[in-house]
Amino acid sequence: YATDPNIEPILDLCQQLGVFVSITMSAYGGPDLSYCDPTPLVPMLRKFPRVNVVIPHGCWPKVQEAVGAALLCPNLYLAPDCYFFLRNMPMRHEYANAANSFLKYRFLFSTSYPIRGFAQAIEDWKNAGLEPESLQRSLYDNAAELLGISG
């Protein structure tokens, strides 16, 4: 699990260096669905508040838990890729609602390649229900700020 205490020295070093951590969490990220539940991450996220944590696949299908953890932890970023932009994906609207409100500055575009090619993923993302500012932030601004390349 991502909450294993053995990774705390790594998180401490990441906090000192100012680098972010990526933890893949989704239905396919472990032997059972407990591996995609972000709820146990909350104490760790609070213990290392200067370590930004990006979660590719957005903890799907634990979307409500992911959105709740992101509400509690300002260092949690979600990159839900195809779980957000596929038209009939269950719970995709919860991502959009959060990205259009409190998660606007921590929602990240991702492709889930090869499920979709890059151009198709961008097109699908643009049509997934984000308001203009949230769309711009998710497609570029948030990642640029996270990477320290915003100008």
Task: Give a brief rundown of this model.
With 151 residues, this protein is mostly helical. 42% of the residues lie in helices and 7% in strands.
Could you walk me through the main structural features you see in this protein, from its secondary elements to its overall organization?
With 151 residues, the chain is mostly helical. It is built from 7 helices and 3 strands; from the N terminus they run αβαβαβαααα. It has helices spanning 8-17, 42-47, 63-72, 82-85, 92-99, 118-126, 132-147; strands at residues 21-22, 53-56, 76-79. The protein has a 3-stranded parallel β-sheet, covered by helices on one side. The chain starts with 7 loop residues before the first helix and ends with a helix.
Q: Strand count, sense and closure of the main sheet?
A: 3 strands, parallel
What do the pLDDT scores average to?
A: 95
- Widest sheet: strand order? 1-2-3
Content of β-strand: 5-15%
DSSP helical segment count = 7
Topology, element by element:
Elements: H1 8-17, E1 21-22, H2 42-47, E2 53-56, H3 63-72, E3 76-79, H4 82-85, H5 92-99, H6 118-126, H7 132-147
Parallel strand pairs: 1-2, 2-3
Task: Name the descriptors.
single chain, 151 residues, mainly alpha, three-stranded parallel beta sheet, 3 strands, globular
